[in-house]
Amino acid sequence: MNAFEILDIIRRRPAYVDKSLTLLRSFLMGFEMGIQSCGVQESTLGEMRPFSIWVAKELGFRGYSKGWCKMIRESTDSEERAFEYFFELLDKYKKETGNILRSA
Length: 104
Description:
The protein has helices at residues 3-12, 21-37, 49-59, 67-74, 79-97. The chain has 104 residues and is mainly alpha-helical.
């Protein structure tokens, strides 16, 4: 399962992460640690790197070292709004780039 598939599930069931962008990121980190502990070498968060670069440009950040979660969170006034905005940006990213978060 790749990052896009996980995000699609969470989009349909936002209660999994209480509509919180920070909890969404934590969920992805935990998922990655879990699959790596089972010997799977895929990186769900690594798949998000091109999205982080795009978010930085889209939101006017000078670089992407803060990561997509922090940049989006700093651009909104609540965790729930950040969660909603994340999916708005993700949809725009996919439309503009055709990228569905495959490894770069």
